[in-house]
Design brief:
This protein has 338 residues and is of the alpha/beta class. It folds into two domains: 256 residues, TIM Barrel (Alpha-Beta Barrel); 67 residues, Antifreeze-like/N-acetylneuraminic acid synthase C-terminal domain (Type Iii Antifreeze Protein Isoform Hplc 12, Alpha-Beta Complex), CATH 3.90.1210. The chain is 38% helix and 15% strand. The strands form two sheets. Strands 3-2-1-8-7-6-5-4 form an eight-stranded parallel β-sheet. The chain has a two-stranded antiparallel ribbon with strand order 9-10. Helix 10 packs parallel to helix 11. The longest helix has 18 residues. The radius of gyration is 30 Å and the shape is elongated. The two termini are 59 Å apart.
C-alpha cells in the first residue's frame, strides 16, 4: 500500500451500537470528512468470546454503568451479514471504500464472498494461527495491526500469511489502549517495522485528538486509521477514543497538508523561492564613488539588497581588482564593471 497519498481509514468499528441506520450515518460522516475508506467489525459473538468472559478494563471504564459480560456487550454491538451487505452497497453509492475486520473464520469467508478490497486483521488476532492461515489463503491484500505484539510475533504472523498465499501486506503500528497515552505510543516503532520487514507501514491510532496520527503521516505512514463516532458521549466501548465528524475532517485536512509538504527530499530552491531570491538576497554594492582604473579596496564596498549583482560570496575574489568604469556610490556591482 505504498503511494504518495496516505490511505485514511475511518474506523467506525462498533460505534454504530448495533444499529444499521447509525452505521449508515457513520458512512456519511466518513465521506463528508474526506476519508478514503470506512471500516466496521464483522463477528459472531458466540464464535469470538466465551459466555463468561469479562470485559476489558477500558470497556468497564468507558461503560461503568453497564454490568455485563464481554459476550453480552458484543452481542448488543453485533450486526448481521445482511446488514453488512447493505452497508457495502451503501458505501458504493456514497463513493467510499467499504472495509470490515473479521473476528472469526465464518466472517472471513463472508467478507471474502462480499468482495472486500482489503482484509484488515485486528491486533488481537496476530497470534491466531488458524485465523491467519484462513485469511492468507484468500490471497487478498492485507492490512495487519500489530498492537500488543513483539517483533517476533509479527515475524511469525507475516510468515504464516505469506506461506498461506498473501502477497500484498501492510503493517500498522498500534498501541492497544483506549485511549492510548501519548507517552506509550512510540511512533518510532513504525520506522522499526519498515526496516525489519521491508513492507509498507502505517499507524492505527487510539490517542485523544489527532496530533499523533498527523505526526505518523509526517514520519511516512502509508495508512492512517482512526476511530470515528457521531458523538463521543454515546454509550459504547470505543466512543471516548474516537473523533467526532468535525475533528475527523480536521485530521484528514492536516494529513493531506503533511503529505503535500513531505516532497521528494531533494534540497533545492523552489520556483517561488527563485522568484523571491533577488529581492531578499544581497549583492556587493559601492560604499563610495569608485573611479575607472581605481583598485577596489574593502572600504569601497558594502553588501545590500537586491541580489541582482555580484554575490557577496565573491567578496574576497573582488578585492584588489580595478574598476573598468566610474561606479557611483550605492551602485550594485556587476562583473562588467570590474
Amino acid at each position: 500500500m505504498r503511494g504518495d497519498k496516505v490511505f485514511i481509514i475511518a474506523e467506525a468499528g462498533v460505534n454504530h451500537n448495533g444499529d444499521l441506520r447509525l452505521a449508515e450515518r457513520l458512512v456519511d460522516a466518513a465521506v463528508e470528512a474526506g476519508a478514503d475508506a470506512v471500516k466496521f467489525q464483522t463477528f459472531k459473538a458466540e464464535r469470538v468470546v466465551a459466555a463468561t468472559a469479562k470485559r476489558a478494563e477500558y470497556q468497564k471504564k468507558n461503560m461503568p454503568e453497564k454490568d455485563e459480560t464481554q459476550f453480552a456487550m458484543l452481542k448488543r454491538l453485533e450486526l448481521g451479514f445482511d446488514d453488512f451487505r447493505e452497508l457495502k452497497s451503501y458505501c458504493g453509492r456514497r463513493g467510499i471504500v467499504f472495509l470490515s475486520s473479521p473476528f472469526d473464520l465464518e466472517s472471513i469467508d463472508f467478507l471474502d464472498e462480499l468482495g472486500v478490497p482489503y482484509f484488515k486483521i485486528p491486533s488481537g488476532e496476530i497470534t491466531n494461527l488458524p485465523f491467519l492461515r484462513r485469511i492468507g489463503r484468500k490471497r487478498r491484500p492485507i492490512i495487519l495491526s500489530t498492537g500488543m505484539s513483539t517483533l517476533g510475533e509479527i515475524e511469525g504472523a507475516v510468515e504464516i500469511l505469506r506461506k498461506a498465499g498473501t502477497q500484498e501486506l501492510t503493517l500498522l503500528h498500534c498501541t492497544t489502549s483506549y485511549p492510548a497515552p501519548p507517552e506509550e505510543v512510540n511512533l518510532r516503532a513504525m520506522l522499526t517495522l519498515e526496516q525489519a520487514f521491508g513492507l509498507p507501514v502505517g499507524y492505527s491510532d487510539h490517542t485523544i485528538g489527532f496530533a499523533v496520527p498527523v505526526a505518523a503521516a509526517a514520519l511516512g505512514a502509508s495508512v492512517i486509521e482512526k476511530h470515528l463516532t457521531l458523538d463521543c458521549r454515546m454509550e459504547g466501548p470505543d466512543h471516548k477514543a474516537s473523533l467526532e465528524p468535525a475533528e475527523f475532517k480536521s485530521m484528514v485536512e492536516a494529513v493531506r497538508m503533511v503529505e503535500k509538504s513531505l516532497g521528494d527530499g531533494l534540497k533545492k530552491p523552489t520556483m517561488r523561492e527563485l522568484e523571491i531570491m533577488p529581492a531578499v538576497r544581497r549583492s556587493i554594492t559601492a560604499a563610495m564613488d569608485i573611479r575607472a582604473g581605481e583598485r577596489i579596496m574593502e572600504e569601497c564596498l558594502t553588501v545590500k539588497r537586491p541580489g541582482t549583482g555580484i554575490s557577496p560570496i565573491f567578496w574576497d575574489f573582488l578585492l584588489e581588482r580595478e574598476a573598468r568604469c566610474d561606479i557611483l556610490v550605492d551602485t550594485v556591482l556587476t562583473w562588467e564593471m570590474v
